[in-house]
Amino acid sequence: MRSDVTQILVINGPNLNALGLREPKLYGTETLADIEALCVEAGKSLGLEVECFQSNSEGALIDRIQAARDKASGIVINAGAYTHTSVALMDALLSVGLPTIEIHLTNVYQREEFRHTSFISKAALGGIVGLGSHGYVLGLQALNYHLSRSNQE
Description:
By secondary structure, the chain is an alpha/beta fold. It has one domain: Dehydroquinase, class II (Rossmann fold, 3-Layer(aba) Sandwich). The chain is 38% helix and 18% strand. It contains five helices and five strands; from the N terminus they run βααβαβαββα. It has a five-stranded parallel sheet with strand order 2-1-3-4-5, with helices on both faces. It is globular and about 40 Å long. The chain starts with 5 loop residues before the first strand and ends with a helix. The model has no long low-confidence stretch (mean pLDDT 92).
C-alpha cells in the first residue's frame, strides 16, 4: 500500500456499464462515466485517490480485487447481480482483508426477493442502498471515516 496517499478502488460489476441506457426509470440517466467522475471528485475532496474499475466478468472482478491487496486501502463495490450469486467475489473480498463498503443504486429490499440476499455484505463493513449515485459519495465518506479512525488506534 502506498503511504503518501490513501488509494480507494471503486468496483462496478455487470451491466453497470449500461447505466444511462439501461432501465432509466429504475437506474436514472447518469452514466457510469458520470458516476466514476463523481467518485474521483468526491475522493479528491476527502484527500483520497480513487481508481475506478468495471467489468461484466466475474473473473476480471476477482482479479482486480486480488490486485488491490497491496495497492489500495479500501474498496467501494457495486457488484450488481453478482451481489446475490457470487461466493467467489465474497471470498476474494475476504481474502484481501481490505475494508469494503457495498453500494446499490436502487433499494434492493424494495425489489424482487432474490435481491434481498447479499454475499458481498458478509465481507463489507456496511452498505448503502437506494440513494442512487450519491450512495458512492457516502460510501467513500464512510470508508474514509473508518480508515481515519483505524489510523488513530
